[in-house]
Amino acid sequence: MDCIVSSSTVLIRSHLAPIRSASIKPLSSAQVASSASNRHILSFNSSGKRTRTLSTNASTIRCGGGIKEIGESEFTSTVLESDRPVLVNFVATWCGPCKLVYPATEALSQEYDDRLTIVKIDHDANPKLIAEYKVYGLPHFILFKDGKEVPGSRREGAITKAKLKEYIDGLLTSISVA
């Protein structure tokens, strides 16, 4: 099946030849997994017409908010007064690397749910926090524990899920929350 998946992932055959019913194949599990954050699938049926469908595979679409977005008004109560470590992810809606990192951050938020809180803060909507914590690049991660920034916890820029997990594990080990 010649197919285009919306958002950032595009899955398409290298050429768009006339389609015969014998050549229609479903997406492989690898393709579905790689497009987990995408929901709309644009397909070409056997007559060459485009059709749009909404993916309903429960294993690839997660609803829920593992990562809470907070602002300046909630920062003190959510981050500084928390009884457990809080990883703050500074992001912006226009930031491409922030969008790339978000699915990994969301997955790890659920994985570390019992040991760590992950929140995100919009760069443009919270200028006081940006200035106070000197956030110069995005995405920008800072770990807080007992109301203070953990020294050496800052991480800036795009990161893979494996590297993000390694980064979080190292931080949790350094503050003895393994």
Structure explained in plain terms:
- The chain is globular and about 35 Å long.
- 22% of the residues are buried.
- By secondary structure, the protein is an alpha+beta fold.
- It starts with a strand and ends with a helix.
- The chain has helices at residues 29-34, 72-80, 96-111, 127-132, 161-174; strands at 3-5, 40-44, 50-54, 68-70, 86-91, 117-122, 140-145, 148-149, 155-156.
- 29% of the residues lie in helices and 21% in strands.
- The chain has a domain at 68-177: 3-Layer(aba) Sandwich (Glutaredoxin).
- The strands form two sheets. Strands 4, 5, 6, 7, 8 and 9 form a six-stranded mixed β-sheet that branches.
- A hairpin with a 5-residue loop joins strand 2 and strand 3 (50-54).
- The model is unreliable at 1-24, 27-41 and 55-64 (pLDDT under 50).
**Over all CA atoms, what is the radius of gyration?**
20 Å
CATH architecture of the domain at 68-177: 3-Layer(aba) Sandwich
Largest sheet: 6 strands, mixed
**Total number of helices:** 5
CATH homologous superfamily label of the domain at 68-177: Glutaredoxin
Query: In one word, what is the shape?
Result: globular
Show unreliable segments: 1-24, 27-41, 55-64
Number of strands: 9
Mean pLDDT: 77
H-E string: EHEEEHEHEHEEEH
Could you give the distance between the termini? 46 Å
CATH top level of the domain at 68-177 is Alpha Beta
The fraction of residues assigned to DSSP E strands is: 15-25%
Overall helicity: 25-40%
CATH topology of the domain at 68-177: Glutaredoxin
* Class of secondary structure makeup: alpha+beta
